[in-house]
Amino acid sequence: MLESMKADRALIAEKEAKIIDLETRISILRKSITIAQLEKQVVLARLDSYKYPVLTLPNEIVSEIFVHFIPPYPNPPPPSGVLSPTTLTHICRHWREIALTTPALWRSINAADRFGRHTPQELAALATLWLDRSAGCRVSISATEPSPIFAALISHRSRLEHLELDAIRTWPLEVLEGPMPRLRNLLLRTPFLLPHISSTPITIQDVPLLRTLTLPISTAAPHPILPWAQLTSLTFGEVHPNDCGVILQKTPDLLNLSCFLSLRQDLPTQSIPATDIPLLRLKSLVLETDRAPEENFFQSFLVPALESLEVQEDIMAGPDSDRDAIDSLDAFIANSDCKLKTLRITEASMPWSSYRKVFPSIPEIVLDEHLFG
């Protein structure tokens, strides 16, 4: 019996040693499995980086790429669809976080739905959402008549840099008449022939940075009260020559001017004496008309720095002048002593060769849509 017990104890010791050995091997195997799994994850991550290299870019770089996905500011992207910045929030959670924390993606808002794809309430909600996402950025807003957007415009007026109001007949004046300290570009496509301002001029002041202005047709009310003297670019959608002359006397720093001159009978006008209109810094001038105005309007410009002139041919001579358009243009250039680089004649009846013969020093002459040089 003693021998049997001794044998059993030896067997137990052997089994215990074997168990310890197996457990040691299992522990080593587990560690090997863990190491292999970690190495596998490293390889998988490396493979993912080969397959999706954009995921390895820093967030700042991805954000900059996103900004180049939309049109250059201040041009607005569409409020919805594949070209909208909202598309970037639908790719993956990581990209969504980056897009929502990139204010520059949301600073240009197109709330002018000319195709009726969104209700006014939807556009107003979208504008409010985008304005919130744009954080402290200066913003650009293009809007039509939906009144729900008024509150967003007014509450964020301190950040407005570019503002376009189109085809609107019910805008409350407070949208325009409050301070807009960062506004640089204002485009109004709405006629000022509105009943509620027929006796009072619209007043836009407290806009110290405003430099570019586009106005619609002449107003039945007195001329808008604007900081004319600080403007460098001015466009009239439709204006009587007299009204144009009255305003241009107040804009000495203009660099660019575009006017559509109209002699419509229903356009009220203010009288202006025949006098020079000195625009000594003007570089670019565009003149169009629905009917040729009196000759002295074209000749009244004094523009010694002018480099680019686009003019409708019958504006130059006027309907009652014995001087043809080329002679009138020659006198205009001589009077201002300007050195034109580009001349474009619209609705031309005279051949290009006639202009080139008289103006050989102008590098580029354009007739209608055809370029000659």
UniProtKB/TrEMBL annotation:
Name of the protein in its database record: F-box domain-containing protein
